[in-house]
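Pasting as-is:
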Amino acid sequence: MAATRDPRPCSIADALALVGEKYSLLVLREVCLGNGRFDQLVRNIGAPRDVLATRLRRLVDAGILTKRVYSERPQRFEYRATPAGLELEPVLMTLKEWGDRHVRKNDDLPMVVEHICGNEMIPVVTCQACGNPVHHEDLTARPQAAGWTVSGPTAA
């Protein structure tokens, strides 16, 4: 029987451990839209209250959201994105664009996001060094984790 090995070390997997749970990115969507109160989140996301409370606690603990009291009696909180949470907004916009094109097929789009220039914001991933758009065929992965190649683990 072959020995089991840990999966590939991966920042994508690490990020998904924080924001990949059902409703987590939808919480961030709503907070980025300015809807950070619990009742707004329940209404706009459709998550069960207990599940939503768990997601919010986890996002606060991870430093993605902060919470602040907006009412003392009864005590109620609103959630806001931290700088780390705001850095996820381009991920949300890219997922939205992908969903518009491949899931909704550009029919009956539920929301358009406008850039400050007044045009619809269509996200494009660009290389920070050269400024060119990124395409799959232009990329080369170079694993940095010891014992790993692009195709998988090296022989023990």
